[in-house]
């Protein structure tokens, strides 16, 4: 009877959606928390890597040659020439982070450079750059100055030019950038977030009902165990999807902050309806697999707590499998990979996000997941029939 | 009168968990909770299973309700065998024990409808039954209050009402008055008598002599998992008080004088 499955689903959904505390902790909170944590992480990271836009570096130079100083005109830097006698004081200033860089050139730098023959084996003219790696601005100033000197050096040799003129040499399109970033990050995130969603509801609905003795009240009705299992799994999947959706929304909203500057060229609009459709099929079938796995573990457990503890190893496995998406450099091309549960979901997602998805791989993934969920559902039905499992004390 | 419950040679043993072994201070792994238990009940009577704690009453009733399976033996309830037709048995009986809890999150009204739909009760019929029984037990006052916020007596009334959503022919009730205040206990026992008047067959378990004397037509005395005596209340009493007769039977069974 289908109506029993629906009656059970309706009851489970009423249970979850009617319980404000549960809704808050299982659905709203994950999204909000993820948004806050990622945003904070993002700002912290950006702050660490970037200096302020209008920051001016403070440089002190000894014997700063005209030839080099001509190349520093575009730098946002205040350059002060000092005497050899002031070197010690300047070094101290760098150490104390009040000065960003101290550059010391030989007295007759230009002449020495002109006279120097690299083939001669003599020591080359020396430039000393003192900086403080513990200060972001100082490290940046050091990088800038080495850049300037490299340019100076290659200008002297003048054997070839790299990227002359103002043509745009970065050929990566915005679409590639998005595909790369999304496909390395999102599969892992999605897997973990979907898992947390399932974990928030399945132990409560399966082990919780055992613990509270409410499952027996349903077991004495004529409802088939398979109907009970289906009703529960479908309802749990719906709630888990809501929970997952909240996490995903939190992630998407915080992504620009998390990625800092990289996000400017990043956008989800490159994905077409087919991509979203395939993603939805993969996500839905994955949630069914996860829910039925967690439900089986929960059915063995005597209490919610025990269920949650027993599920942890599975969580770690899912995380590790999710991580394979980060380092794989594109989706697996061979079909057999898509028969491996969980891994197939990750690979399909990598494919979808990196714009080289194979519809047949996604189909295999979804079918494998559905078959596996059905098998797990069958196992769960057997478990609901076993008094040893339902009434273990 | 027709025989509606036939129980023949039921056996059930449990494995004690390590925790239970410690708790009960025993090294024995197996408990023979019910052994070779047989009895029968006629349609329209109240049958009382009387016995001390741990005698195997609840275990027997759980087997009849198809929550657990016997190691051996058979029971047939209104033509349905527990071994081969458990789902059919479930349609014939209403079962109530303290083990069966209602989900705290829902209201009696919601749960009544939910269980009615699991039993396939037509909504119009359901509403008629519901308004009758909610009225009778005074559930109407708290029909929309979550189970979590109800007193033990209110919960028991709601459980009883819900166990009868499908108007079963056989009602199996484990310790019907346990933990109830005197007033609720009276409402419940009165209702059992009422059900008998409607021709229902009722099987109750209890360790309370007065309850048996008050409502039962037939009594089975169960000690250490065995049916030690089974007859009509009058025959069992044999002119004495049930309590005195019980202790006679008990000392004979366990071979000790109390
Ligand atoms: N699930 C179980 N596991 C182990 N022992 C059990 C279990 N259920 C009942 N028992 C044991 O079976 C015996 C009969 O219990 P029970 O049927 O509950 O007695 P009663 O209801 O007459 O008090 C007791 O010794 C009890 O400890
Ligand atoms: Mg008992």
Task: Provide structural commentary.
The complex is a heterodimer of chains A (393) and B (258). Chain A is mainly alpha-helical and 393 residues long. Chain A has 2 domains: 2-45 and 173-390, no CATH class; 57-152, D-Maltodextrin-Binding Protein, domain 2 (3-Layer(aba) Sandwich). Chain A has helices at 2-18, 20-49, 66-69, 87-95, 109-115, 136-157, 174-212, 215-219, 225-259, 273-300, 304-327, 343-353, 359-385, 387-390, and strands at residues 57-62, 77-81, 101-104, 128-131. Chain A is elongated and about 100 Å long. Chain A starts with a helix and ends with a helix. Chain B has one domain: Rossmann fold (3-Layer(aba) Sandwich), CATH 3.40.50.300. Chain B contains 10 helices and 10 strands. Chain B has helices at residues 18-23, 57-64, 86-92, 108-118, 123-137, 152-163, 182-197, 209-215, 233-237, 242-254; strands at residues 3-15, 30-42, 46-50, 72-77, 80-81, 93-96, 170-174, 201-206, 218-223, 226-232. In chain B, the strands form 2 sheets. In chain B, strands 6-7-8-3-9-10 form a 6-stranded mixed sheet, sandwiched between helices. The mean pLDDT of chain B is 93. Chain A binds chain B through residues 1, 3-4, 7-8, 11, 14-15, 18-19, 209, 212-214, 216-224, 387, 391-393, and chain B through 17, 19-20, 65-69, 87-88, 90-91, 93, 95, 99-106, 110, 114-115, 117-120. Adenosine-5'-diphosphate (ADP) is lined by residues 14, 16, 20, 31, 33, 51, 53-59 of chain B.
């Amino acid at each position: 009877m289908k109506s029993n499955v629906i009656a059970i689903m309706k009851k489970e959904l009423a249970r979850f959606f009617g319980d404000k505390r549960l809704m808050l902790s299982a659905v709203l909170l994950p999204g909000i928390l993820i948004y806050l944590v990622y945003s904070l992480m993002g700002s912290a990271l950006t702050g660490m890597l970037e200096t302020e836009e209008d920051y001016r570096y403070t440089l002190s130079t000894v014997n700063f040659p005209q030839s080099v100083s001509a190349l520093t005109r575009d730098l946002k830097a205040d350059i002060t020439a000092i005497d050899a006698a002031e070197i010690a004081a300047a070094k101290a200033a760098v150490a104390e982070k009040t000065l960003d860089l101290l550059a010391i050139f030989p007295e007759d730098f230009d002449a020495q450079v002109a006279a120097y023959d690299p083939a001669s084996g003599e020591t080359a003219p020396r430039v000393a750059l003192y900086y403080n790696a513990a200060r972001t601005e100082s490290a940046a100033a050091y990088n800038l100055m080495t850049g300037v000197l490299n340019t100076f050096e290659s200008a002297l040799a003048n054997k070839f030019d790299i990227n002359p003129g103002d043509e745009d040499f970065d050929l990566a399109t915005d679409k590639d950038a998005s595909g790369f970033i999304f496909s390395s990050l999102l599969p892992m995130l999605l897997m973990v977030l979907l898992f947390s969603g399932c974990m928030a509801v399945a132990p409560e609905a399966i082990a919780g009902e055992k613990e509270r003795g409410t499952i027996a009240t349903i077991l004495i009705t004529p409802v088939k165990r398979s109907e009970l299992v289906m009703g529960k799994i479908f309802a749990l999947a719906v709630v888990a999807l809501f929970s997952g959706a909240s996490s995903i929304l939190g992630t998407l909203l915080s992504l620009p902050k998390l990625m800092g500057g990289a996000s400017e060229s990043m956008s989800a609009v490159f994905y077409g309806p087919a991509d979203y459709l395939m993603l939805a099929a993969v996500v839905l079938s994955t949630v069914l697999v996860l829910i039925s796995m967690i439900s089986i573990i929960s059915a063995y457990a005597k209490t919610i707590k025990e269920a949650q503890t027993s599920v942890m190893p599975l969580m770690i496995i899912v995380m590790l499998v999710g991580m394979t998406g980060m380092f794989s450099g594109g989706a697996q091309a061979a079909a057999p990979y898509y028969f491996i549960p969980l891994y197939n979901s990750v690979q399909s997602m990598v494919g979808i996000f990196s714009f080289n998805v194979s519809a047949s791989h996604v189909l295999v993934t979804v079918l494998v997941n559905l078959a596996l969920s059905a098998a797990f559902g069958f196992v769960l039905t057997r478990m609901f029939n076993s008094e040893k499992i339902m009434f273990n004390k | 009168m027709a025989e509606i419950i036939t129980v023949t040679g039921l056996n059930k043993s449990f494995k004690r968990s390590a925790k239970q072994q410690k708790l009960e201070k025993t090294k024995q792994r197996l408990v023979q909770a019910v052994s070779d238990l047989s009895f029968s009940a006629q349609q329209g009577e109240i049958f009382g299973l009387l016995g001390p704690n741990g005698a195997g009453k609840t275990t027997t009733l759980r087997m009849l309700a198809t929550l657990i399976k016997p190691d051996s033996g058979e029971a047939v309830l209104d033509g349905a065998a527990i071994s081969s037709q458990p789902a059919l048995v479930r349609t014939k009986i209403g079962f109530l024990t303290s083990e069966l809890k209602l989900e705290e999150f829902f209201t009696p009204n919601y749960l009544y409808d939910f269980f009615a739909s699991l039993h396939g009760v037509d909504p119009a019929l359901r509403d008629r039954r519901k308004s009758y029984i909610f009225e009778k037990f005074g559930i109407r006052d708290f029909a929309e209050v979550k189970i979590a916020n109800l007193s033990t007596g209110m919960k028991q009334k709601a459980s009883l009402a819900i166990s009868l959503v499908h108007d079963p022919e056989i009602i199996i009730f484990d310790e019907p008055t346990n933990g109830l205040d005197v007033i609720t206990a009276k409402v419940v026992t009165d209702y059992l008598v009422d059900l008998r008047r409607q021709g229902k067959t009722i099987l109750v378990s209890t360790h309370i002599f007065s309850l048996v004397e008050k409502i039962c037509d037939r009594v089975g005395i169960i000690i250490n998992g065995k049916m030690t005596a089974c007859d009509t209340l009058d025959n069992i009493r044999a002119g004495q008080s049930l309590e005195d007769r019980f202790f006679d039977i008990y000392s004979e069974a366990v071979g000790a004088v109390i």
